[in-house]
Amino acid sequence: MSATPVPALRFDDPAVFGRVAVLMGGTSSEREVSLDSGRNVLEALRARGIDAQPVDGIPALVEALAQEKFDRVFNILHGGDGENGVVQGLLQALGVPYTGAGVLGSALTLDKIRTKQVWLSLNLPTPRYVRLDRGADAAAVRAAARSLGLPVIVKPSCEGSSVGVSRVMDEDGLDEAIALAARYPGEMLMEQMVVGDELTVGVLGDIALPSIRIVPRGEWYDYNAKYIAEDTQYLCPGLEGEDELRVRELALAAFRAAGCSGWGRIDVMRSRATGAPYLLEVNTAPGMTSHSLVPKAAAQLGIGFEELCWRILEQTV
Q1: Which of 77, 151, 190, 215 could, after both became Cys, cross-link 233 (CB 3.0–4.6 A)?
Q2: From 34, 37, 157, 161, the catalytic residue
Q3: 283 annotated ligand-binding residue
Q4: Which residues are named in the active-site annotation (predicted)?
């Protein structure tokens, strides 16, 4: 799997991209991460001679496009309207090329419950789950946990970056977990917790990048381990031989099944007891920070950060 063929770059002249808006920031719970990602992308594009400018949030983008300031958009607006189909629909209606998944893939995959429903309809493996309304009472919550079997994961259905996520080991922890998830809009998701290795697989065009096995120092890969801690280990490739091949094929199938294209990342848990992989979610605008995983996986194929940004932007031409 280490010999995954990487196609040649399609263009070598930065002028082919015209004026590029790097859309970042916004108002979602992932604003700060998006700003960090955006600054990195902006620097990488400019280093390759591309005329790229930062744009903070959708209202600023609308104003700039009305003035015909940009020819295309590198979308690194994490969460919210950056990943739920809103900005994609806007740009599609205006005929402005943009990076990442289209309206359908973006809208579907930001909603973890609907994504799981699609995967299950195609017999793609994902942990068992129960959908919970924001107003679910304590009896319904406990009944859901008993039907799945503790331990469980509780999280908002439409947030990313581990925002609002709790691991619940016994019934005493359910109330606090539900209260945390309910701080965020939309439905809540309770799913069976898979005990084992946490993996992620990046997708770049038609290529599944080498998997990364994430080994946090603490009990699990939370927001702190993702963006702040310096002691999280990232093992790439995360698996070997047929296991590695299998998880990459599964990730690519899951990505396509959810209507996604361009680039993204699929999170997977691999059961320690059985070795079976289980799909968790898709990220259609993955982080591009110093801690982010798609750049780490791309580097294993000899694709540096600047080239990765170029390749993502190439998909808009």
Answers
A1: 215
A2: 161
A3: yes
A4: 30, 161, 292
Active-site residue flag, 292? yes
From the candidates 28, 29, 30, 159, give the one annotated as an active-site residue. Answer: 30
In words, the CATH class of domain 109-125+195-311 is: alpha beta
Q: What is the pLDDT confidence band of residue 168, given thresholds at 50, 70 and 90?
A: very high
Say what the pLDDT of residue 2 is. Answer: 45
Phi, then psi, of 22 in degrees rounded to 5: -95, 100
Is 222 labelled as part of a ligand binding site? no
Q: Is 84 annotated as a binding residue?
A: no
**Which of 153, 132, 106 lies closest to 284 in space, CA to CA?**
106
68 is catalytic: no
Low-confidence winner among 3-17, 136-150, 217-231, 294-308 (lowest mean pLDDT)? 217-231
Question: What is the topology classification, in CATH, of domain 129-192?
Answer: Dna Ligase; domain 1 (3.30.1490)
Name the active-site residue from 28, 37, 157, 292. 292
Which of 3, 45, 20, 4 lies closest to 205 in space, CA to CA? 4
Structure confidence by residue, pLDDT tens digits, 57-83: 999 999 999 999 999 999 999 988 999
* Catalytic status, residue 30: yes
